[in-house]
Structure formats: structure tokens, C-alpha cells
Specification:
- By secondary structure, the protein is α/β, with parallel strands linked by helices.
- The chain is built from 28 helices and 27 strands.
- The strands form 8 sheets. The chain has an 8-stranded mixed β-sheet with strand order 8-7-9-10-11-14-15-16, with helices on both faces. It has a 6-stranded mixed β-sheet with strand order 1-3-2-4-5-6, sandwiched between helices. The chain has a 3-stranded mixed β-sheet with strand order 23-25-24.
- Helix 19 packs antiparallel against helix 26 and helix 24 runs antiparallel to helix 25.
- The longest helix has 36 residues.
- The chain is rod-shaped.
């Protein structure tokens, strides 16, 4: 049965609620002998006029309904601290005038249900129960074993037990939540000394709960500040399966998201041990090892679960990989570090700030089982475990889940001392909780009773809501002289000590105070920090380094904590961590890539390179015009006729157009019309050139190839056919250019000049894709021309221009292949890019002129005696299917000027 889900929220009369609690407690007791953990007395009792209840974790929990082994000595110290402070208060006659404090403390065994059951003793011992349920019949029912039947207290002590004014405890948050749910029904204030769950700050749910420690959200912020201090941005969180662990981990995760710290994984520790628990711990460690870059492990758990996790890490062989960042649940505690020193070395823990209690060590040194066991029923068991000896008089009546028996008798001279006992660093919170109760009671006595010594009628009975109101406003100096008061939520002040578990000298480990976290400010003395004895510097816990300016993050495999850095493009700025956006035209990214700034706009200027290019183009236009004139005047001569004169003029027109296109880049500013003309003219010029050359080489190849197998004249070899085919090929380029301009309208584009705060406006068809699409068909013609030049390379020179065409195409291919790397290098700089394109155009045209026309012009003008018609003739060899054209069979001029005659001669030979 979950009492938290029932009793705290029942809307019922308190009489019914109390009976329900008692019956529920009896049902638990019937399942196991939890109440009989130590013989006939299961409580620490000190007689007083006003009783303070206490809940302490004397024994650890077990996997069944019984208590487990004795808890670490820090919990026994907490109980003794309450006894020590109460005795100090009672010894001061001027503080509580005429009345004394008493103690009724129980062991909750770190179990939620058992803690709630023990708290029932505070409820059924209240004046409310006595007055309303028993109608003031303060009878005593004596058992044969000498105890009171209902309270379990020694005979004669029952009446005073009913004045339970408030409760100090419990230690664990889960236990405090259960107890607070019960005590609020009966208006009994409660002050916890170690419970830090944020849930307990909710005054609507827990109006009678106070604590002397700060809640966990302050501790979580301290941890985040430590992560930020070391720049640890990739960490793992491990927490126990309890309200303390779950809420603490949630707060860490919330703050981590706020500060950009990535949680690689979150793991939950099982609450109980055993074989299944060991397997779960091993699985957790395996999953941790899958993320080797997450070296920091935030460990939010109580000290009892630490050893099992560290044993699993030890088995995995990863003893030196992790850096532990610990919560106050195990910070500064020796139990968690025993036999695990090497694994925990370098750990950083957060601990609520407290100072050692003065004279408490002297008090402990005076304690001995022979006297103190009458007050503290668990002291004998503690003494035996601490000194590993047997007192001899403890009987078999102790019913624990595991009961350790010792053989060697204890030495009567054994004492607790600095050599074998160290004061826990968190005991001040226990002392402050007791002092808060005492000061509130003193203030009530002053206001209600005035100068009357002892409890006046106004304090009989003491109402719980009155004590609650005085606790809210209590202010006092604690046992070390520091001022203390509760905040508006009933919490202690948020002050933490930062501890570093380090190897001070070889083999010697201890917690070293290296800093404080106070009022949300972290102060660390870095010179005191130490990771390992041989390596004091802390390693990184980062999955991916922060990207540089102008780089965006691309996550890997969907892990938001890990990424690769990719720089934004030249014209992009970093919009956010993962996105690069283009700057608008006329803008360029700022130096830090966080935005865009407007640039000064300029046009292509006629510089020295442009002048050289224009002179080159002008000379080409002049020479082209001169050659055209010469060929027209000598069009009937054998040399002109032998060069396929009908195709010479389209070729010259294409060359002329290409030369003229150069002026469009420099003379006129770029507009949509000019850019369209540039794209159209350049493509058309090259298409005319290479269409004419392709038709020439194709005609020669078909005639000579057909002549070896048949006397039939090839189709489409007449001059008119050749001109039509050339026109069709050039028309295809014109149509492609038109379609491309419709699909992607040309226009001016702004080009950023690297190293200059200007943009140059030029046509957008200079970019790689636009230029490639515009020149795709001419390049295809160029490749086909080169192929046919290779196929006709062995034809005798007097019959064709095959060798001249081949040399032309080889040279042109070299020019354009050389242009590609130059274009790539200059693609980001528009001025050299335009010069590169224009030089390539001019060189290609010049090669055509020099290789195809200059030799003809030279013969016409300088060697007219060679401009004659050669004789024709064939010489046959072998069968009719094999023939070779003789050098005297046909003249070069006749072959290209009178193809029909040649066909007839070939037919007669076959």
C-alpha cells in the first residue's frame, strides 16, 4: 500500500485519519517484524517537558521488509548530534526557562514505508490523540516485558511522550515526503537536516515542512556552473530511482539546455542490489562506454548506491576514464570512497556549506557502551562494527536482515578518537534543526508565558500551527556563530562548498575544499584542483569543439550534441548555429559572418588586360575581313575551289562573329539585352565555325570510305547540301540558346571581388553552369570535328584539307582544355574570368585562320604558280572491291569541285 497516495489527500475527519494510520501501521507490522529491530526498545528516549521527535537512517534498507546492515557512521553521528545539542540546551538554565527538551528518535532504515510507520508514533503521542480519542484517560497498559503496549516505551514514560512538538528528520527526501504528508494532517512541524528535493519547497503541499539545507535546484545550478567553468559541454547524468535522484536530474537537464550543455545520456540506478541489480549496473557502464567523449558523469545519488556502480566500472576496466561530479548525497562521505579511491580520484562534489561542530569530538570521546547504550539502543551495534569486536551481552533477539557477529571481545579501553573516527562534515545541519526548534519554543515561551518559569497554561497543549508560525520567523546564531533563518519556502540558505577528491600524496586520498558557490556565484581556487597525482590537468568532456566564426553545425547521426563544422560559402552569413543564408545582391557577409553589409557597385573597366584583348580581337576582325576579300576575288582559282569554297564563307562568318563578341564584354554596361546577345552570339559564332568544319571532314570521310566498297555516289555531298546541313547545325544552336534564355533569362549579376569592398556587375552567363549550357552544343561539334579529323588523317593532302583540319582541331582542344583549370582558378574573380573567356575565344578563332586560310592565301598571293589544276587518275589494285586512288587519278581541285566526275571514274574502275 502506498500511504502517500491515500492518507495525505484524504478529505476526512482527523479522528478517522488517525485510526486509518494506526490500522495501516498494524497491517505493515503483520507482514514483518519491522518494529522489533532491536529487542524490546526500538527508540532513543530522553525525558523532557517538550518532546522533539527524530528520524534517522541508523540501518540501511534491505530487499525485503526488514532492515539491512548498519548505515555508514555519518547517520549515527547525526543521531548523536541531536542528543548532544539537546543536552547542551538543557544545561543552559538561561535559555529555556524552567522547561527541558526531550528526544524520541526512531530508525527509519532508509525505507519510505517504514519511515512513515515510525512517524505514526509522533502522531498517536500527540495531545490531539490523547484529548480526542482517549478522552484524557492517561492509563498505562503494562506488558510482561516491561514496556507500554501502545508506545513501546519503558513504563512510566508514556505521558511525557505525548508532548511531541516537532520532528527533526528524516535524512532522505523520499522519507521526508512521506512523513510530511502525515504530519501536516496533525499540524506537527518537521525540520529535515539532509532532505534536498525541490518538491519539499512547495508550501501548499507541505506547509509544516522546514529544512536547514538548501533545495536541490541550487545544487544543480552549482553543478552547471562547474561544467561551464571547465567548458565541459558533453556529459552523462546518472541518478538514483527516487524523488531525490529524479528531481535533481530533471533540474540538471533543464539548466543544461538553458546553458547549451549536452546531456549524452541519462541513466537510472536501481534502488536495491542483488544479482539483478548487478546486471543493471553492468549495463549502465556498458552504455557509458559507448560515448567515450562524455568523460564527465554527474552522479546524483545517495552514498549507499555508489559502491555498486564503482564495482561495475572496475569490472569494465575503465577505471581512469570518468570524471565524477557528485551531489551532496555522497559528497565528502568516506563510505562511498572505500576501496574505490583510484576510480573516484579527481571527482568534484557539491556539499551544502557546513562547519565542524565545536566540542562534538570531545563529546564522542566520552561515550562508551557501558553507559550510553541505555540512551542509544543502537550504540552497542555501532561499537561492535566500528571496532570489529564483540561486547558479549547482545542477545539473539535482534532481528536484522543481516546480523554481523564478532568473535574478538571488545577492549574496555577503546574510545572514539581522531585516530579512528572523523566528524562528518554535514552535522551542522542537524544541530541547526534542533536549535531552530529550541529558539522557536523559547520565543513562544517569552510571548505566551512572559517571566513565568516552566510551561504556563498557554503552552498546554502547544499548538502545531503556533510553532510553525514562529519557525518561519526564527533568526539565531548557530553553534559556529553564523546567522541562520529560513527563507520564504522554509529552506536553508543556498551556500555550497566545492570539494575535490584527490590523491594528496602517493596512496593517500582525501577531500580538499577547492571553492564555494554562494549566491549563485562560483569561486574556485584552480591551483588547488587536481585530477590525477601524475596528471593534475582535467581532460576535456566535449563531443565536438565549438565552430569558428562563419561555420555552421551539422549534427552527426542525429546526435544533437555532436556535430561537424562546415564553413559558410563566400556570399553567405551565419543565420544561426545550423544555417547559412545568402546575402542579398549587392551585399556581402561581414568579417565575422554574422550579417551582411552593402557594397559599392562598379562595372568592368577597360584596364591593360582588356586593352590587349580588344587589340587582339580587332586584329582578328581585320585579318578575317582581308581573307574573305581575297577568297572572294579568287573564288574561281583551283586553290579556292579545292578548299570547299562554299563552306569557307560560313566558317569565316563564325570567326568574325566570335571576334566581335569580345567587344560586348567591355564596351557596353551589362543589361538583360546585352547579356542575352553575349550568350547568343558566342554560341552561334562557334556553332558556325565547327559546323562548317564538321561538314567538310564528314564529306571527305564519306567519299573516300564509300569509294573503297562501291562506285555509287554518296548522298548530300553537293555544295548546296553542305550549306544546308551547316545552316541546320547552326540553327540548332540558335534554338538551344533561345530556349535556355527563356528558361533562365540572362541578366546582370553582382560578383563579389575578394579582398575589395566592391561588387562588379557583369553578365550572369559567366558562371560555370550558364557557360557550360550555352557552349554545350559547340563543344559537341568540336569533339565530332576532332574525331573526323582523326579518321581522315591518312588521306593524301592533295585531295583534302584533312591534315590542316586535324591540326586545327588538335590545337583548339588544347586551348579549351587549358582554359578549364584557368577558368576554375579565376571563377571567383570576375575580371580575370572575363579575360580568360575572351582570350580563349580569340585564340580559337586565330587557330582557324592560321591553319585553314593562311596557307591558301599565301599560295594565292605569293605562289600563284602553284595555283593550278592537277591531273586526275585512278590506279586499281586487286579485286573490284579493293582500289586505291592514284596520285594522278584526280586533282585536288577536281575532287572537291566536281564530285560527280570523280564518282563516275570510281564506278568505271569497279
Amino acid at each position: 500500500m502506498d500511504f502517500k497516495a491515500t492518507v495525505p489527500y484524504l478529505n476526512m475527519n482527523k479522528h478517522i485519519a488517525l485510526w486509518y494510520v494506526l490500522l495501516w501501521g498494524v497491517s505493515i507490522n503483520s507482514r514483518g517484524n519491522i518494529l522489533e529491530v532491536n529487542g524490546t526498545t526500538n527508540s532513543l528516549y530522553i525525558k523532557g517537558d517538550i518532546m522533539l521527535g527524530g528520524l534517522f537512517q541508523i540501518h540501511r534498507s534491505s530487499d525485503n521488509d526488514t532492515c539491512g546492515p548498519l548505515s555508514p557512521q555519518s547517520h549515527m553521528q547525526a543521531l548523536e548530534t541531536m542528543v548532544y545539542v539537546v543536552r547542551k540546551i538543557n544545561q543552559n538554565d538561561t535559555f529555556l526557562r524552567g522547561f527541558r527538551l526531550g528526544v524520541l528518535a526512531f530508525d527509519d532504515c532508509s525505507q519510505e514505508a517504514y519511515s512513515l510507520e515510525q512517524a505514526v508514533h509522533f502522531v498517536d503521542g500527540s495531545d490531539f490523540f490523547m484529548n480526542k480519542i482517549e478522552k484524557d484517560k492517561k492509563h498505562e497498559i503494562v506488558c510482561s516485558n516491561g514496556t507500554d503496549e501502545e508506545s513501546g516505551l519503558p513504563n512510566g514514560q508514556r505521558n511525557t511522550a505525548y508532548n511531541v512538538a516537532g520532528v527533526v528528520g528524516a535524512a532522505a527526501s523520499v522519507n521526508s515526503i512521506q512523513v510530511a504528508n502525515l504530519l501536516k494532517l496533525f499540524k506537527i512541524p518537521q525540520i529535515s537536516y539532509w532532505s534536498t528535493s525541490p518538491d519539499l519547497s512547495n508550501k501548499d503541499r507541505y506547509p509544516y515542512f522546514f529544512r536547514t539545507v538548501p533545495p536541490d535546484h541550487h545544487q544543480a545550478r552549482a553543478m552547471i556552473e562547474i561544467l561551464r567553468y571547465f567548458n565541459w559541454t558533453y556529459v552523462t547524468v546518472i541518478h538514483e530511482n527516487s524523488n531525490y535522484g529524479i528531481r535533481g536530474a530533471e533540474e540538471v537537464q533543464r539548466l543544461a539546455r538553458e546553458y547549451g550543455i549536452c546531456i549524452a545520456a541519462t541513466e537510472m540506478l536501481p534502488r536495491d542490489g542483488g544479482k539483478s541489480g548487478e546486471e543493471e549496473y553492468d549495463g549502465i557502464v556498458k552504455r557509458l562506454n559507448r560515448r567515450p567523449k562524455a568523460r564527465v558523469v554527474i552522479l546524483w545519488t545517495a552514498e549507499s548506491t555508489i559502491p555498486l556502480l564503482l564495482q561495475a566500472i572496475k569490472k569494465s576496466g575503465e577505471k581512469n576514464r570518468f570524471i565524477f561530479l557528485g551531489s551532496d548525497g555522497w559528497s565528502g562521505r568516506r563510505y562511498s570512497t572505500e576501496h574505490n579511491e583510484k576510480i573516484l580520484e579527481g571527482a568534484i562534489t557539491v556539499q551544502p556549506m557546513a562547519d565542524p561542530i565545536r566540542d562534538f569530538d570531545n563529546y564522542l570521546a566520552e561515550l562508551h557502551p557501558s553507559e550510553h547504550s541505555q540512551t542509544n539502543p543502537w550504540f552497542d551495534e555501532f561499537w561492535e562494527m566500528h571496532f570489529n569486536c564483540s561486547l558479549g551481552h547482545r542477545g539473539e533477539e535482534t532481528k536484522l536482515a543481516t546480523t554481523q557477529r564478532y568473535v574478538e571481545p571488545c577492549n574496555p579501553s577503546d574510545r572514539l578518537s581522531a585516530s579512528n573516527f572523523k566528524q562528518d562534515g554535514q552535522l551542522q545541519f542537524v544541530a541547526t534543526a534542533v536549535l531552530a526548534m529550541a529558539h522557536a519554543l523559547n520565543n513562544i515561551h517569552r510571548d505566551f508565558c512572559g517571566n513565568v518559569s516552566g510551561l504556563c497554561p498557554a503552552m498546554k497543549p502547544l499548538e502545531g500551527h503556533t510553532l510553525q508560525a514562529y519557525l518561519r520567523n526564527v533568526t539565531f546564531q548557530d553553534m559556529n556563530g553564523s546567522k541562520f533563518s529560513f527563507d520564504q519556502n522554509g529552506d536553508g540558505p543556498p551556500r555550497y562548498r566545492i570539494l575535490n577528491y584527490q590523491q594528496t600524496t602517493p596512496g593517500n586520498f582525501s577531500y580538499v575544499n577547492v571553492g564555494v558557490f554562494d549566491q549563485y556565484t562560483l569561486n574556485i581556487k584552480e591551483e588547488l584542483m587536481k585530477f590525477k597525482l601524475d596528471d593534475p590537468n582535467y581532460p576535456e568532456s566535449v563531443c565536438s569543439p565549438e565552430c569558428a566564426q562563419g561555420e555552421r553545425k551539422i549534427t552527426k547521426n542525429g546526435d544533437l550534441c555532436c556535430w561537424i563544422c562546415v564553413p559558410c560559402l563566400k556570399n553567405q552569413f551565419l543565420e544561426n548555429e545550423t544555417t547559412c543564408s545568402d546575402c542579398e545582391p549587392g551585399y556581402m557577409p561581414t568579417e565575422n559572418k554574422t550579417g551582411c553589409e552593402e557594397l559599392m557597385t562598379v562595372y568592368i573597366e577597360i584596364d591593360n588586360v582588356a586593352i590587349i584583348t580588344l587589340i587582339f580581337a580587332t586584329a582578328g576582325i581585320t585579318i578575317t575581313t582581308f581573307i574573305a576579300v581575297v577568297l572572294i576575288k579568287n573564288r574561281s582559282t583551283p586553290v579556292v575551289k579545292a578548299s570547299s569554297r562554299e563552306l569557307c564563307f560560313p566558317l569565316l562568318i563564325g570567326v568574325f562573329i566570335c571576334y566581335c563578341s569580345t567587344f560586348l564584354y567591355y564596351v557596353t554596361p551589362p543589361t538583360a539585352t546585352i547579356c542575352g546577345v553575349q550568350l547568343f552570339v558566342m554560341g552561334l559564332g562557334f556553332a558556325l565555325c565547327y559546323s562548317a568544319i564538321l561538314v567538310k571532314t564528314n564529306r571527305v570521310h564519306r567519299i573516300f570510305h564509300a569509294g573503297r566498297s562501291t562506285a555509287k555516289r554518296p548522298d548530300f555531298i553537293s555544295p548546296v547540301s553542305q550549306l544546308i546541313i551547316t545552316g541546320i547545325l547552326a540553327g540548332i544552336q540558335a534554338i538551344l540558346s533561345f530556349v535556355y534564355m527563356v528558361a533562365a533569362p540572362p541578366g546582370p549579376k553582382q560578383y563579389v571581388v575578394p579582398g575589395e569592398n566592391v561588387v562588379v556587375v557583369a553578365c550572369g552567363n559567366l558562371s560555370g553552369m550558364s557557360l557550360a549550357l550555352g557552349m554545350a552544343f559547340p563543344l559537341l561539334l568540336m569533339i565530332m570535328c576532332t574525331i573526323y579529323a582523326l579518321l581522315t588523317r591518312k588521306i593524301p593532302s592533295q585531295y583534302s584539307e584533312a591534315k590542316l583540319i586535324g591540326f586545327t582541331m588538335y590545337t583548339t582542344c588544347v586551348i579549351w582544355l587549358a582554359m578549364v583549370p584557368i577558368y576554375v582558378v579565376t571563377s571567383t574573380r570576375v575580371r580575370p574570368l572575363i579575360s580568360t573567356i575572351n582570350f580563349a575565344i580569340c585564340l580559337s578563332c586565330t587557330v582557324c585562320l592560321v591553319c585553314l586560310f593562311i596557307p591558301r592565301v599565301y599560295i594565292i598571293l605569293c605562289r600563284p604558280e602553284r595555283n593550278v589544276k592537277a591531273s586526275n587518275g585512278f590506279r586499281a589494285h586487286g579485286t573490284k572491291h579493293t582500289m586505291v586512288l592514284s596520285q594522278s587519278a584526280i586533282s585536288n581541285a577536281d575532287f572537291f569541285s566536281d564530285t560527280e566526275a570523280v564518282g563516275k571514274d570510281m564506278t568505271s574502275i569497279s
